[in-house]
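Researcher: Good morning. I'm working through a list of sequences from a screen, and I'd like to move beyond sequence-only analysis. For each chain I'm collecting a predicted structure so we can compare shapes side by side. This is the next one on the list. No need for commentary yet; just the structure.
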Amino acid sequence: MSRMETAGALERELLVWLEASLGAKITMAQRLVGGNRRRAWAVDLGMPSGEPIKIFLRFASQEQDCSDPYDLRREAAIYQALEGSGVPIARVYALHPSLQAVALERVEGKSSYRGVDDEDRKTRIAQDFMRALDVLHKVDAGSLALPVARHASIAEHVREELAIWRGMYEFTGRADPLIEFTFAWLGANVPQAPGVPVVVHGDAGPGNFMFTDDRVSALVDWELWHLGDPVEDLAWLSMRCTLEPFPAFALRVREYEQRSGGPVDRARLLYHRILVCLKVVIIRHRALLDPSPDSNPGNSIISRTLNRRLLTEVLQQAAGPVKAPRDLPEPRPTAQDHEYTYLLDQLRDVIVPALSEPVARYRAKGMARVVKYLQQVDRYAQPFAVQEAQDLADALGTGQVFVDVAQGRDALSAAIRAGQADARRVLVYLARQSARDSLLGAPAVGALAHRSFDSPDLPATP
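Model: Good morning. Structure tokens for this chain:
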């Protein structure tokens, strides 16, 4: 049984449960890298008959707070409901009666789409992913046994999602002007989409599907599934494409349109780009309050930096661009620069090369990103606070400059919620704040610092 030495008490309990549930003996168990706030193990078992079973054991190490409905039991329900539907999806072998744990079929294939070197093969996989997404959206959601409320219109489901995510945001008790402004805009602009609500994957795109050869073998990571607008999944795809580029996004949209039988409403796609960025921003906002022991803070910095910038950009596309020039200060060397350099050198040259355990290497690389971010904060925190205090005063239009920028953010958030803030002034503040956040995150984010959404439209022919 390989790598069992890394199993903690919870893992050992779950492995015992797995053997009892399946009536089989474990022959291999190995913890997998990634998963954000979930843990995962690859487990092989042998049945008394000699038949092998390959399991993907997914579980949470702690209970979720009451504001978050997206737990593993809810996720298991969509796997069970879609079995036999034609959607490529894993089978559920067992669901723990009390803990947040599910044993799924370990589907053959790979999930590292960026590791595909052959561009033609990469395109064929992308085309098959669009086929799988179309199959999902054509499933009759009304015929499925699902543990969620059903509404007659897509717009009602969108409003329900907004209410759920607002509750998750408010649970933190920390105001954020970007989140408040986005909720105000989304609430006032819910599209009246035609058609019936469909099953939305809720995080569709590269990294969340398995593939073998040129085919998608399974859509995975259904944590955020819900009923709603199929266009939201195209927005998720476009967001995930900023992390792991998908070949010719506009052509993939055209292929989806041909399969689905109608054009994708570009205004709805923009709306859902704003919505999906908001969801990721809220996830990272919540992680700052109560980081999961299973999360990777280094990856969270990347996600937070990228998605706050993307959200600010698409808000300007929807509400109108603003001119927000603001010279950013030069970095201020600090007394700790030597220590930061030492830590980064040790992590890169000594610690990471010496680690053979994949999870440990993954965490160590994440730590390096955190160190890079903290070094930027030390260099820029003071001049940025001065700039932001003035920008908050300008956004509020009261002339009051807050000594504590947190109080200024609270005041601006309250004004936005009360409908008393000027949208153009707020957008200027958000654009300037995005520039500062991007500079803080740049060393940790690396090449992603300049990624933006791809256009869903093909270039005009001459």
